[in-house]
Structures are given as structure tokens and as C-alpha cells.
Specification:
alpha/beta; Rossmann fold; single chain; about 280 residues; 11 helices; 7-stranded mixed beta sheet
Amino acid sequence: MALIRNISDTALLAAVYRARESERSDPLFRDPFARRLAGERGEQIARSLAFSEKNAWAWFTRTYLFDQLINQQIAAGCDVVVNLAAGLDARPYRLPLPASLKWIDVDLPEITDYKEELLKDEQPRCELERVRLDLADVPARQALFSRLGTAARQALVISEGLIVYLTSEDVGALAEDLSRQTSFKYWLLDLTSPGLLKMMQKKMGQPLAQASAPLIFGPSEGPDFFKAHGWQPLEVRSMFHTAGGLKRLPLLFSFFYRLQKSEKFQANRPWGGTCLLENVSSPNN
């Protein structure tokens, strides 16, 4: 039987790398729930993907960057966080969040039930709502976004590890559904270049495709892809250069880091990064 059964199992993989980073003596972040959430299957999945293991630095760097940018937006006045494809993210339990913050996790029922059961005895640091929803159900997600948008003043949408599994058409449609809610001021996501996407497809794409979770989205326009769908890039961070600055790259990669100092998106190179987008449909823009 294949270790990766469906797209939700990729959440186990992400939890493994959060757990490993948290267990270091000098962690970039602490996630005391990650090991419990990952379980033994998570470790088995990680060990089965040699490319992922070799590039573990990208997993924990992504978490680090998302943590930094989420904290930044909350400090700037964000009152709602909408976490799309939340997976096994435990940020409502581990980040220093204000109690008044509303955090909404949105994901499929099975992975949501799994996380809820394992964290049932834990107390989130803010107001937490879990929504069981398939984001491919367009009318249902539009209704959810409308409800959440009406209740929010300045919302941050996050989608960590989601859009790489979607087609360009689906990403564009999702972006437009989100941008219609003027209170959804910002959107934080991770992005893959065509060069990196091709490498990932070759090195680890087969087991994901067999689990109906093929790697698809790596736009040649990079962050500018979202301009046509209601969003303006505000802050773009390269995971490679962030990891290099934190001295967390493997030795060979550190050599290339010293040679290549630009964080700028490069379509033909294996570039991966985090992007903070601003909703240009907002009346303030």
C-alpha cells in the first residue's frame, strides 16, 4: 500500500519537519504539538521521499517565514486569520496571539477531525473556529468567504502548501473569490517557480500524483500572476536566501548561497518563496 494515500497526508509530512526543527537545541520556532500530530506515519512518509529529506531546510524555513509574517500582520491590526487547507497547523495553540483574534481553520473533514481529536485537551490562545469544507466546492467556499468577510475588519488569509496542487485556472478563481471580500486585506502564500516545480515533479511527483495530489502550479509570472486576479505583491521572500541567512543550508547549498545573493523570483531557477499579497479591491487602495 502506498504511504501517501491522499492530499491530506502531505500535512503529516509538514508536521514531521516542524517536529524535527522544534527538537533542535537552537530551533527557529517551537511547535510542541508537531510530533504528536505527525505520528509514525509522518516519519515513514518523510523517510520515503529522499528529495524531501535532502531539502528539509525548505520545510522549516517556510514555517519560519509564515510565522514571522503572520505575527507582523497581527501586530499591524489584523483581527481575523482565515487559514485555508489548514492541515495540521497548530499556530492557534503555539503563537503568541491576542485572545481577541479570530482564527478560522478550513480543511477537509477527515484531517480536521484527526487534528481536533489529538488537540482536544489543549487550549488555543485565541478564538478558534474549524470549518470542514472542500475548497473545490466553489459555491460553498464563496458562501464561507462572504460570511467571514462580513464579520472581519482586517483579515489575513493564509494558504500554506495549497496552491502548488491547483491548476492556474483554479488558483485564479480562488484569488478572485477571496479578493471580492474587501475585508480580506492580505493573503500569505508560498509559491514555486517553473524551474523548481519541474525538479519537484521529477524527484517526488510520482507518489503524490498516485495519491491524486499532483504538483501542478508554478507560474512563469511568479508573484505577478496574482495582479490579474485582484492582488498586488507586497513582500516576497526567497526560502533559499532566508535559510542561507539563518545558516541552515547544507554545505553545498551554502556555497551557492554565497554566489547568488538575489532574492528575486527567477522562473527558470529552482526558486521557492513566500508572498504577502494585498487586496487591490479594498476601498483604501
